[in-house]
Amino acid sequence: MILFLDPDPKRAVLAFQRMTEEDQSNTIWCKTVLEAQTTLWNYRHTLTRVHLEHDLGEQSYANTRSEDCGMELVRYLEKLSVHHDDVFPAYKKMEFVIHTWNDHAGPIMVERLRKIGLKVELKPFGM
């Protein structure tokens, strides 16, 4: 299973078109932090790849402290690594792709996810 977090339907369609048929049928498109958190928790044993966007609202270059941005998912995973060490190993099996073009927030997201032991790469969408 693949989680794709991005509120932009045009990017979601492009990402979907670039996927194999198998990946297309196994992708969950999330548009909000809450949808992504719920999916990360409910599908933690079946997710293999997680694509995260930082800027989820109307504005580009959202404040990384905002609760309505991809950094909130990073904070969520950091909390899980501390408070749910019984289930956190499931997340270590996943591949995380930060696909944001936000050149400030993207590297921070990568660094923080690596710090808690997750496999992650920065790959701005379309590259």
Question: How would you explain this protein's 3D organization?
Answer:
With 127 residues, the protein is α/β, with parallel strands linked by helices. The protein has a single domain (2-122), classed as Rossmann fold (3-Layer(aba) Sandwich). The protein is 40% helix and 16% strand. It has helices at 9-17, 21-24, 33-42, 71-83, 89-92, 105-115; strands spanning 2-5, 27-30, 49-52, 95-98, 119-122. It has a 5-stranded parallel beta sheet, with helices on one face. Strand 4, helix 6 (105-115) and strand 5 form a beta-alpha-beta unit. Helix 4 runs parallel beside helix 6 (105-115). The two termini are 22 Å apart. The model has no long low-confidence stretch (mean pLDDT 92).
Q: Measure the end-to-end span.
A: 22 Å
The tally of structural domains comes to 1
What is the CATH C level class, in words?
A: Alpha Beta
* Chain-averaged pLDDT: 92
Strand proportion, as a percent range, falls in 15-25%
- Main sheet strand line-up: 2-1-3-4-5
Structural class: alpha/beta
CATH architecture, please?
3-Layer(aba) Sandwich
CA gyration radius, whole angstroms:
13 Å
Element order, helices and strands?
EHHEHEHHEHE
Cα shape: globular
Oligomer: single chain
Helical fraction: 40-55%
The description of the largest β-sheet is:
5 strands, parallel
